[in-house]
Amino acid sequence: MPFVIYIFALSAFALGLAEFVPIGLADVMAGSLNVDVGQVGKAVTAYALGATVSAPILSALTASWSRKNVMLVTGVIFSLGSLIAALSSDMTTLLGARFIAGLGHGLFLAVASSTAARLVGPSRAGSAVALVFGGFTLAMAIGVPISTYLGSFVSWRPLFLSIAAFGALGFFGLLFGMKESLKEPVGHPANNAKEGLRALFNTRLLAGTLITVMAYGGTFILYTYIAPILIQLTELSMSTVSIFMMIYGVAAAVGTSSAGKWLIVLAWIGRALF
């Protein structure tokens, strides 16, 4: 596997930390900023909105750029947004910084996964994409529980600074480690920004994505506030909450890694029965 794909995974790890770490630190951040936990929940929403905007729209607008340049720009945006978030002293600044960081998130994952597949060829594309998203899954399974545990001893700001540092590390890894500056072939539909933007209004595509929207919405409505719920209602300590976060993350990692195999089995059973 090309070394640069491991750099993609490192960057995806930073993105996963940025998305999920505030969930485990909601109580700590609320106390530091003198707001209620519901306000801190908006920091998760702001990041998600940034990712939502960047993935489809900016992917279409930057389709003619080299893949390396796209990822470098997203790395700068993400790291800068995370740094500003770490230094924020009020909710307005924090929410704006989280939105900016989210802009880098959505576009990077979209480009990194497709680029990883192209770098290794069709026979190893699945393994390459799995490795990229493995960094993201590792952040949920390991990074978030550790951050939640550390949140009971240190401020949330150093933890956000570490996210910016991981993002910067990924940026320099791409700058010096990615030699191939891939572009879409001339005449490829992806090079037409208008065609890409028009696809956003395709009713069939929108209907398909609705499934993902409902699944993620149902998950994150609870998961965003799982730490304060456990702390306030069950009176668990932050260190104990981190154990629950780890269990959730490991379960998510196992589910992600095995979902494809189970879908194949279910499809085979379905064909046999019907």
Walk me through the topology:
Elements: H1 3-24, H2 26-33, H3 37-61, H4 67-87, H5 91-120, H6 125-150, H7 156-177, H8 193-199, H9 203-223, H10 226-234, H11 238-273
How would you describe the overall organization of this protein?
The chain has helices at 3-24, 26-33, 37-61, 67-87, 91-120, 125-150, 156-177, 193-199, 203-223, 226-234, 238-273. With 274 residues, the chain is mainly alpha-helical. The chain has one domain (3-273): Growth Hormone, Chain: A, CATH 1.20.1250.20. α1 packs antiparallel against α7 (156-177). The protein is globular, with a radius of gyration of 19 Å. The termini are far apart.
Q: Sketch the topology as an H/E string, one letter per element.
A: HHHHHHHHHHH
Number of strands: 0
Distance between the termini: 40 Å
Tell me, rounded to a whole number, the average pLDDT. Answer: 80
CATH architecture: Up-down Bundle
Low-confidence stretches: none
Comma- or semicolon-separated keywords:
274 residues; mainly alpha; Growth Hormone, Chain: A
Briefly summarize what is shown.
With about 270 residues, the protein is mainly alpha-helical. Helix content is about 85%, strand content about 0%.
